[in-house]
Amino acid sequence: MDPINWEAYKGLQDKKDDSINRLDMKDVIAMSIAMLQLVLPIALGFIVITFLTILAFKWFFG
Question: Is the pTM of this model over 0.85?
Answer without folding.
Answer: no
